[in-house]
Prior knowledge:
Blueprint: H1 2-23, E1 28-33, H2 49-59, E2 64-69, H3 72-80, E3 86-90, E4 100-102, E5 107-116, E6 133-137, H4 144-151, E7 156-160, H5 163-171, E8 177-181, H6 182-189, H7 194-199, E9 200-202, E10 208-217, H8 223-242
Parallel strand pairs: 1-2, 1-3, 6-7
Antiparallel strand pairs: 3-10, 4-10, 5-8, 5-9, 5-10
Helix pairs in contact: 2-8
Amino acid sequence: MLRKLIMTAVWLQAVLLSFAQANDVDNTVKIAVGSWPPFISKELEGYGSVAQTIKHAFALEGYEVTFTFYPWARAYENAKTGEYDATAVWMFDEERTQHFYFSEPVSQEQFVFFHHKDLDFDWAQLEDLKGYMLGGGLGYSYGAQLDELIETGQVTINRVNTPSQNLLRLYHKRIDIFPEERHIGLYYLKQQPADVQSQITYHPTPFLSNNGYVMFSKQSPRGKELLAIFNQGLLKWRQQKKE
Length: 243
């Protein structure tokens, strides 16, 4: 009888320990993000549409999300080292796969060239940008082809922190062209004074149609696991929206 009681006690202890460990599972996902309104921003309700998509996808799998906003380059580095589980949102770049797993797409963007109305600008291929001064964002990628032209010095770019700065530089003709996602460029343009808005336009032909992704850090112990969890939740979320 004594032995039976001891065995029962051991079994109960194991069950309780297993239960405690299960409840100790960290269901909070830490994501480092950059500001990219109207898609994602600290100033937007619910942090914007992309942040809400990420949040809902994880919620369907029983996870909560905390977003921490940084300049883009810092968000990338903080996730790369595993300080954060993931970073959002980024376009696909083969080089980034060394450090990150890419999720299923969470957004769709079209990049165009903004310019001053006084500039008679047209283009057919990206090599046509040679001779122009581009304004860009710190840590931004503009797609493999344009990135290569920039990195090899065939196209000149001067980078600053925010789209607003680039729009003002366009207005004052300190740069010639500003490549930016159309919705984002227009979002920031609407915040400028009327005379600035009246002098800036964009070329209607997108130079890049792109998907945005959540990148899960390979240095995070849960990176690959969270990738699968997120993709599963994202599929459920999209199915729910169709119903």
